[in-house]
Design a protein that fits this description.
- The structure is a single chain.
- The protein is an alpha/beta fold and 390 residues long.
- It folds into three domains: 125 residues, no CATH class; 32 residues, no CATH class; 165 residues, 3-Layer(aba) Sandwich (Rossmann fold), CATH 3.40.50.
- It is 38% helix and 13% strand.
- It is built from 14 helices and nine strands.
- The strands form three sheets. A five-stranded parallel beta sheet has the order 4-3-7-8-9, with helices on one face. A two-stranded antiparallel sheet has the order 1-2. Strands 5-6 form a two-stranded antiparallel sheet.
- Helix 3 packs across helix 6, helix 8 crosses helix 10 and helix 8 runs parallel beside helix 14.
- The radius of gyration is 27 Å and the shape is elongated.
């Protein structure tokens, strides 16, 4: 790796952490998108180019662009250190939020309470150049160009040693192979179509009845008539589990031999709308969704239900209960997959929801139990978790 590339990564990571501390709604996926854009050739060359890239990906208004410009100047004024694994872990640590408005003035009164890099030598503040208009910053790099660069996956000398490039090699509580095998057990077999198979029993009976066999008795083949709906919690505390959710969706759509698979998204709990895309831009009323499904539909909800952050939210419980009551009027079988282990649900929102929804942890055994529930072959209430008995 070229030595100049290490400081470039360092600037990007420190800037990303600073923006998060000032309440920018950024997650790990946003950081990885910037890394992929750099791999595609964007943001390389000089500081202005990198700044424009960050504005394109991480800001949504002129005010946010000005904040980013100010923080970018601060990062460049600091001595750069090498990135290590402890710096990467800072992405997952909550920091003391700072209002965005506090940086829109001409001077910055104080830094966020949480330091981004420890034991850094102090250095006199360098004069800050006048920020360029944010409209120019955003317009010089179109978002479509960045997306195209990511999709093209152009090769370059820009190496990322601390993030795996092969997502299939990531640790998962249940492997892709196990997910694919699990979906194959979700079936509702019905004979349908043309008469292609020999009905042995019917043929023997006809022969015994008439004493002759003018022609054999034929029957149609079995086909899997199950219809699956996946309701996936997207964003927030589910960000670390997005890859796992994508694996569930992909294996259901391509390897599960399921007649019809539909995917909808929500955040935290379904309230009024469900969304047809993970970016939650294409909304659909829940009432319309309930008209789309029927008693032959199996519904699987994928969410941590608040267990990832270990808190209890009565509002989330109440809205989830209302949605489940509506769902019960439309389908016979539904289940909930939680990426957090069941021993972490106690005293959280997930524990309360698990008392009225069949909820299983995301493991091989949990996935199998959830799929059996969708088939009507698992009685959840007969096997309560140990903490439910307390």
């Amino acid at each position: 790796m070229n030595p100049v590339e290490i400081p470039l990564l360092n600037v990007l990571l420190i800037l990303f952490n600073k923006l998060r501390s000032y309440r920018f709604p950024l997650g790990v996926e946003d950081y990885m998108l910037a890394i992929q854009a750099l791999q595609g050739g964007f943001g390389m060359g000089d500081r202005q180019t990198l700044e424009r890239l960050c504005c394109t990906l991480w800001t949504k208004s002129e005010q946010e662009a000005r904040v980013l410009n100010r923080l970018f100047e601060e990062v460049l004024a600091q001595p750069q250190t090498y990135i290590n694994q402890s710096s990467i872990k800072e992405l997952e640590k909550p920091e003391t939020p700072q209002p965005v408005d506090s940086l829109t003035s001409t001077t910055v009164s104080e830094e966020p309470n949480q330091p981004l890099l420890e034991n850094q030598p102090t250095q006199p503040q360098q004069p800050v150049s006048e920020p360029s208009p944010s409209t120019n910053i955003v317009q010089e790099i179109e978002p479509e160009q960045v997306i195209q660069a990511v999709r093209s996956n152009q090769s370059s000398s820009f190496e990322i040693s601390y993030y795996p490039t092969d997502l299939s090699a990531e640790y998962l509580p249940v492997t892709s192979r196990e997910i694919k095998q699990g979906w194959r057990f979700l079936r509702r077999r019905v004979r349908e179509g043309t008469l292609q198979e020999l009905d042995v029993a019917g043929t023997v009976e006809k022969n015994c009845r008439y004493g002759i066999l003018p022609e054999p008795v034929m029957m149609s083949r079995y086909t899997n008539q199950v219809k699956l709906v996946l309701l996936v919690d997207q964003g927030g505390s589910m960000v670390p589990f997005h890859h796992l959710s994508r694996q569930l969706i992909d294996k259901a759509e391509r390897g599960g031999n399921i007649k019809q698979t539909s995917v909808y998204y929500f955040q935290n709990y379904p309230e009024k709308y469900l969304y047809n895309d993970p970016t939650r831009l294409k909304a659909q009323l829940i009432t319309n969704f309930l008209e789309f499904i029927d008693k032959k539909t199996s519904v699987l909800i994928v969410s941590d239900a608040g267990a990832a952050r270990g808190n209890y939210n009565p509002e989330r419980v109440e809205y989830t209960r209302k949605f489940i009551e509506q769902l019960q009027q439309s389908v016979n079988y539904y289940a909930w997959l939680n990426p957090m282990p069941n021993d972490s649900w106690q005293y959280t929102t997930a524990a309360e929801i698990a008392r009225f929804v069949p909820m299983f942890e995301m493991s091989r055994e949990g996935l199998s139990a959830a799929i059996n529930t969708l088939r009507g072959r698992y009685v959840y209430w007969e096997r309560p978790y140990q903490w439910m008995l307390l």
